[in-house]
Specification:
Protein name: Transcriptional regulator
Order of helices and strands: HHHHHHEEEEEEEHH
Organism: Enterococcus rivorum
Pfam families: HTH_3 (PF01381)
Number of helices: 8
Strand content: 5-15%
Number of domains: 2
GO molecular function, one term: DNA binding
Structural class: alpha+beta
Strand order of the largest sheet: 1-2-3-4-5-6-7
Largest sheet: 7 strands, antiparallel
Number of strands: 7
Keywords: DNA-binding, Membrane, Transmembrane, Transmembrane helix
Length: 254
Amino acid sequence: MNIGDKIKEQRLRKELTQNQLAQLLNVSRSTVSSWEVGRNYPDLDTIVSISDLFNISLDHLLREDKEMTKSVSKKMKMNKYYKIILIVIGTVFIIYFGFNTKLRIDENRYRNNLEYYGWENNVVAPINLEDGNGYELKEGKVVYWTYILPAGLIGFPMSEQNVNVIANDDNYIVNVEGENDFSISVLHGNDESIDFDISVKVDQEGQLLESKASGSRKKQKLIKDYLEKYKEKHVSLIEKAIEKRREIIGRSQK
């Protein structure tokens, strides 16, 4: 006997019409009819309600109905998968929300520090800084630039690692992109012995790092000669830019 026959048997025993049973289970009469003729099966919640209504065990309702048992088993597995998926989605959302909140707190800290140390906002600098996120600071002959990405900008989170400071002293330019990430602009305008402009990665002492990206041996020699010739100026700028970067990302001064 399948579950539809058992529902019908219990309904008749209780002297209920299909419509009355449908009202008790909060379904339509046609739904009850489809159960009883075997066209459809009740869902898991409804099976429990039927079990309670007729005061019979779930085991009695499902026993001998192999198709229903398979259906219930499948739905239970699907429910399990859905729960796992929901848990994963929920976890990802919580992580994203927490991470985004931290980024916003960090961004506010950076902007507060920039204001505290006298940086000018919304400046026109080596890159497009006309959107309210660019900052400039002048100290004597040295000009510093930085850019603060909004925390909500998708794909470009403003984490501490993204804060960089460019320092320019009479067109001698260094870029501090991280605690140990430095580059120097090798410029023809500063030295007529070279006929190109290029930005190269260096260590904190101004020594060339990315030799592979620097071209031929002749070009590498010209770059190294340039770096050695203006080493004192570059190292001084790197040190100053590092200090400015630490001021920006440090504990808020407000």
